[in-house]
Every structure is written in C-alpha cells, then in structure tokens.
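HUMAN: I'm a chemist; might I ask for a sequence paired with its structure tokens?

ASSISTANT:
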Amino acid sequence: MYDLLRFRAKDEAAEKAREVANKDSSEQTPDSMEVDTTGAAIVVDDYLPGEMIVVHNPNRPSMGLGTVYPNQEEFRLAVRNFAINEKFELHTAKTDKTRSIYDFKAEGCPWHIVGRTQPGGHTVMVLTSML
C-alpha cells in the first residue's frame, strides 16, 4: 500500500533534497559566504537636548565661579592641581559626599572655594570662589 500510494517515492525525494542541502551548507564556510552589509551602518547621535557637557583641563583647572566638574573626585583633584599650579598650600576646611570647602593655609588670606554636587546629578559646580 505504501508503494502503491507513492509515499516511498516522496520520502526518497525528500531525503535526497536534505542530503543535497546538507552537502551545500557544509561546503560553505563563513569566509566563503557573502554577507550583504548594505544599509547595515546605523548613524548614532548621542546628543540629548539640555544635557550638560563637562569639559575641563585636569592639568590647568579653572576655579572660576560656575565652573562645572563631572564629580566630587574630579573636583577635589582639580583643586589640588590648582593649588600646585598657583604654588600655595591648601587647607581642607570640610568635605563630605555633596560638598567640598577649601581655603588657603596662611593666616588672614581671603582665598576660599566651595564646590557642591548639583541636584539630580553627580556634577559639581564651583559656588564660591574668592581668588
């Protein structure tokens, strides 16, 4: 009955097609396959409106009022580098997670700087600068 209804012929044809497909796929290595990369490059623009971009020179930092630093660690390093560049001894008046207060170690010197972490972020802005 199986042969009479030609099921055997259909199964043999399907098996032959599988063998041919397996043979073709085993002969093609990833190096020999052609890959269509047309349109694959996607242009990415990371610009976000209203995003603050923090750019500073770590070797010659500016301590002007309103200067922004990426985080407290960068701000503290900038203050130390500023003191070294300007050749004065630095005194740390107070530091915590959200603010850093520095002044000059010599008596009677009015130099004073305060950096505070800004709300909603990690950036630090110079709020008081008497240089």
Remarks:
- The helical segments are 7-27, 72-86.
